[in-house]
Amino acid sequence: MGAISLKTEVPGPLSRALYERLQAATPRSVGHTTPIAVAHAEGARITDVDGNVLLDFGGGIGVVNVGHRAPRVVAALHDQADRYLHQCFQVMVYEPYIELCERLNRLTPGSFAKKSVLFNSGAEAVENAIKIARSATGRRAVLAFDRAFHGRTLLALGLTGQVQPYKAGFGPFPADIVRLPLPYCYRCPHQRTPCCQLELSALEDLVRSQVAPDEVAALIVEPVLGEGGFIIPPEGYLTNLQAFCRKHAIVLIADEVQSGFGRTGRWFASEHFGIEPDLITMAKSLAGGTVLSAVTGRAELLDAPGPGGLGGTYGGSPMACRAALATQDTLEQEGLLSRAEEIGRRLLERGSAWQQRFAFIGEVRGLGAMVALELVEADKAPASDRAARVLKRCYESGLILLKAGAGANVLRFLMPLSIGWDELDEGLDVLEAALSGRRAAGQAGHEAGVGVGIDRPDAGHHAGPARVKGAEVVAVPVAPGPPSPHGRGRQHRGREGPPTAARAHGLVGAGRISLAVGLHPLDRLTSRLHRPGGVLLHHRPGGGSRAGVIQVRLAQIVFFKGRLSLQGPLLLGAEVLDDDGLVPVGIGAGLSHEALLGPGARAQCTDQKGGHEALHADSVLLP
């Protein structure tokens, strides 16, 4: 048995009831990725209040790298709870705070003397890093990057480079923040190699056009963007930033809130790029699911603010400090950093295969287990709606997955690094089904798939639907018709029959059919094709069909050496009972059999008035 076990539809009745209470008691401004309520979590598995067991590829937004309820973390919390729960560190010191700071000073990159200070959230760490830099330099300005995310408090939000949904309606923001472009190779309009932004003189000119370098206190950068879409800067870019900062005595701050503590296969992503930040901000997986953040860096910088200038009532709580120490023990003793590298290798391998199959996957990128898929339209515009549909199909099939990016079109992987290999494969299978436009088969007693029937216009009727189970297609007999002038089809597993039946079985019994296409609403369906050698596909909801189960009727099937060969255009007309109800669609595509066997067929949508709109077929595979 797999890890996923669905006893009800997802969300189930108890989750829905809690969600209704949530809507009445909490503001709409607190967003929710899923309408699911958790009851228990362990490792990479989450059990909801309805008893459904789901796989977690979100990790509480990257918080549980060591897994939910990691045994060492739970034991440390129990032990600390028996001692004392709270003692403000500014009132009376305690050893777990000091021991954790000692460890952070050793773990973070940099061969210089370091000190650390503890807070609560990532945003609080970022704001205090800026305070430290300003206090140490006596300067005011801060350099930050577009697409960056540094938190939701006002200064952190000012540093954040995404307006929606984070900044809209919350201005004005603090002054003296200068925005710089971050290299985003996939969307670079120049496509130069090496990257044009690697030139230090270009960075100098860009900064000087907005602020004098000797007025800049700090430059803050995520070594790998988190909420911005897991964007990895080109080789050499971060070392150039460091050189620029050293030249002008600017404090270099690495925001490692999401990329730290093993996610990229190193303790910190900065290590991949050979940089030694002056300050590093940390949170999320620092403390195994408890509330804690930190700033670690050059001792002289941390000592710059006066006594009482830094601190907070709950910062570095004893419970969180003990959890953080246990988290580091778990990462070390269970070899989770090397495991992150292997997870990343498997994710990139699987994602690259999907990219070949699905034209809407524009890029697969990652560093260690910090991997993402960017979904795009034919013109590379962010495929935000498609990403939302994929995530919905995933959680309905038992997989929690998150998105990111300014266009909300990047699927990111933040599963616990302790995840089992079978669990990883199972979750990726669910995602593959969702990318194919369907929910995973076999969940909660529902058989997701497509009903397939075959007919010919001259046969007068068609057979009842066959059932698609996952990728395997079970054929059914069809009414015989005249032989095709284009050649013979393959027999299906030795079954004897007239040529039409043989051709039908050659198609349906071939193994795998994917018709995951970009759907576009039409005023009226176009559902007839009168060109010889073409194929007519007509989708319509079958009797009693559920969402995700439709009937397909095929006509005028032509074979060439055992593979489908189209001499004319392919027309796909549909009324699809999709997640949002009955959606009439129509796709017409000029395809060869080579195009059908590969991804990325161009498609054309025709409406009632004869207008045309270019679409992109995701995948049409007929092995």
Architecture overview:
- The chain has 623 residues and is an alpha/beta fold.
- The chain contains 16 helices and 28 strands.
- The strands form seven sheets. A seven-stranded mixed beta sheet has the order 4-10-9-8-7-5-6, sandwiched between helices.
- The two termini are 29 Å apart.
Précis, in short:
The protein is an alpha/beta fold and 623 residues long. It is 27% helix and 21% strand. The strands form 7 sheets. Strands 4-10-9-8-7-5-6 form a 7-stranded mixed β-sheet, sandwiched between helices. Strands 18-17-16-21-20-24-25 form a 7-stranded mixed β-sheet, with no helix packed on it. A 4-stranded mixed β-sheet has the order 1-2-3-13.
Task: Work out the helix count.
Answer: 16
Main β sheet profile:
7 strands, mixed
Strand order of the biggest β-sheet: 4-10-9-8-7-5-6
Shape: globular
What is the typical, i.e. mean, pLDDT? 76
Name the helicity range. Answer: 25-40%
Which runs of at least 5 residues are low in confidence (pLDDT < 50)? Answer: 444-623
Count of extended strands: 28
Q: What portion of the residues fall into strands of 2 or more residues?
A: 15-25%
Q: Output the radius of gyration.
A: 28 Å
Q: Please identify the structural class as seen in this structure.
A: alpha/beta
Distance between the termini: 29 Å
Oligomer: single chain
